[in-house]
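Usage example:
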Amino acid sequence: MIIPKKGDAVLVQGITGRYGRLHTKLMLDYGTNVAAGTTPGKGGQSVEGVPVYNTVAEAVEKSGALASVCFVPAEFTYSAGEEALNAGIRLLVLITEHVPIRDELKLVQLAQSKGASMIGPNCPGIIVPSQKVKLGIMPATSFSPGSIALYSRSGTLTYEIAGQLTGSGLGQSVAVGIGGDPINGTTPIEWMDFVQGMGDTEAVVVVGEIGGDAEERLARHIQKSGYRKPIVSYIAGRHAPKEKKMGHAGAIIYGDYGTADSKIKALTGAGVKVAMAPSEVPLLLKESLG
Amino acid sequence: MRLFEYQAKELFKAYGLPVPRSILARDVDAIRGAFASLTPPVALKSQVLAGGRGKAGGIALVDDPTDAEREAARIFSLSIGGEKPNALLVEEAYPHDSEMYLSVSLDRGDRAFVTIAAMAGGIDVESMSGKVMRRVPLEGIDEKYAEEVASLLKLPASQSAQFVKILLSLERLSREKECELAEINPLAVGKDGTLMPLDAKVIIDDNALFRHPEFAKLHPEDEFEGEASRQGFAFVRLGGDIAVVGNGAGLVLSTLDLVGDAGGNPACFLDLGGGAQQERIEAALRLVNRLPGVDRILVNIYGGITRTTDVATGIITVLNEGGMKPVYARVSGAEEDEARRLLDGTPVLLYKTAPEAVEAVVKVE
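Running the assembly step on the lines above writes:
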């Protein structure tokens, strides 16, 4: 995993679209060095003063960007991601929702073969408040610098919980939305292992939801590896019906697979404090930090 | 998108997989004709998407036309997991000695598709003993792969060749139609050793439907779900009396939990989506206001990119149209002071936090 730093040149793929434009401005306002954008056929234009190129290769050559935030529509996300990874992008943040599963799997394999990091798809991105850098669509106002690392499968819930942490004086070292799809470019285990090595991080917040077994796997990993930082979790969907996709492609219970109760039980068994509501997260963190 | 069994079996046939002879009957009148063209005994199988149809009485084995009509009438009157069967698959029974399990499915944790095969059919794949699991490469499997699975299952030579053909076809179907799951459970082993899929479960990746227009509009859509999907909302009907509306899937899911914990019954889950605008909240409120069973509306907004002032203006616009059920709202985040000022003095019941709004909306009798 690569954590973006202040000044790092960042590329925006799909910069001339409605969301690309809006979030280029908001990222620049926050402090991110958006140095180049791409939209095929729109090379030579500029968005918010950022030069637009036709290809990622050209944008990378001119700007030196090693990270990309991709807003390209789902039908074209695979080819945009492939182009970025082949052009040498080391951190690929895929914001787009509705990317087909097999396209996601192909991108995960390609990123692994290149040794690159991928976040998303269907995610708000990553923010590092102390560096005033965000690669994504999260509202800057919810976040503040500090020592809590936060990861979440959901966008707005990330902002809600970050906002509650900020309101309680608990700033964040880094926050990432890993995505609401069944396939995540960065898995919770990869993320948690990385965060364990971050010197400026005292505790971790894990925001999960129904669907899949990522939280159960994480719980086994926490136990087996003897995770050393306090963890507080919140799992959404205790009252969700079965066999229904609850907004996110990944938020679905099949039979008894993917229930909130199973996740809460596994995490609790691994020594994680699990909040029953977002508002409890700061209280449990303060307890853990003493 | 989950296919009905009969749709999945059509797909099986197109991919060269064997299936028992069957006829789809959409009402009791069609049963006699279907029965006459098949060799009894036949199974009457309710076509529903909900699980547990066997336990719910949604399958019957019949020998004569009178029984068939009586059982069909009974099954058509059932509600299986809240779902009324729109059709019965009338299918020749397949006498068999034993059952196997076979599927190609997404393993989310391993980020790969996997073949799962076992010598016993069953409901709970997780706990199946002696099951064989192998990763499926994205480019597909070959004969050697399928033969290895057959040999791990210790299939006799006569069944191994059939199994290899079935697995190759199932995997090709799964890959070409971009399924999340393609499952044969049970795969029956006939008295003469012939393998026959008796049930078929296929779930297509919703996000890949743009590449597979043949599946578009296979399901009759609920009026409200249809409208919600045209508006770009994520929407699920839940049957209670409190409509739950918010921005962001996780936030709405967490609001459902707060309502459930407080003893309330959500009528629906409605996620406005990111960057919600004034027109979107207006459209959402009009939609849930018409939903049968709804008698109050809970709006939970965390503003960021979504401007809380836009949300407030949208709520006021819809309230001014008249006929709105009571709206309980928590509007927090960017520009919330201005949003609260806009809502002050309107009929909106405004609360500072989500738990407070939930408590208030649930308490109403």
